[in-house]
Write a structure and sequence with these properties.
The chain is an all-alpha fold. The protein contains 5 helices and 2 strands, in the order H-H-H-H-H-E-E. It has helices at about 10-15, 35-45, 50-55, 65-80, 85-115; strands spanning about 120-125, 125. Helix 2 (about 35-45) packs across helix 3.
Length: about 160
């Protein structure tokens, strides 16, 4: 919970509402005097009476989360009166879809590149798959290909990866 000093200054809610902040003020733990805009936004969108009723109905251990949600939604509603936080969620979802498409295109490019650019490794004009002059790690252009057979080659080749 946020802390508020009852003796020094009233909480942001009581200060905004121009009333005396009592020690049992429902707003004090969640709207400290250092954050007046937080309560102003919540009050503008939901109203002090509705917030007070909501906080009294919510379990004490859930109140801080409830206030944080109200504050987030209030700020979002002020920025976007029609959609509020749903508008922000939609923007983020569209961004995720765009980035997913970009990632898919990049992965497709990588597969195309690896299919077109996986030449047989040569050492002195001889193929290294027989173990001559090559390592069992099957290095080719800095890629590591284990010397076991892999049948899930994205290029559709049936040779073991170590023989590339």
């Amino acid at each position: 919970m946020a802390s508020s000093s009852y003796s020094n200054s009233p909480c942001a809610a009581c200060k905004f509402l121009r009333r005396k902040c009592m020690p049992d003020c429902i707003f004090a733990p969640y709207f400290p005097p250092e954050e007046p805009q937080k309560f102003a936004n919540v009050h503008k969108i939901f109203g002090a009476s509705n917030v007070s009723k909501l906080l009294n109905e919510v379990q004490p251990h859930q109140r801080e989360d409830a206030v944080n949600s109200l504050a987030y939604e209030a700020e979002a509603r002020i920025k976007d009166p029609v959609y509020g936080c749903v508008g922000a969620i939609s923007v983020l979802q569209r961004q995720v879809l765009r980035l997913q498409k970009e990632l898919d295109a990049t992965n497709a490019d990588l597969i195309r590149y690896s299919c077109n650019e996986m030449p047989t490794t040569h050492h002195g004009g001889r193929r290294t798959s027989d173990g001559e002059g090559g390592s069992s790690l099957g290095h080719s252009h800095g890629f590591y290909y284990p010397s076991t057979n892999w049948n899930n080659d994205p290029c559709g080749n049936d040779y073991p990866r170590g023989d590339i």
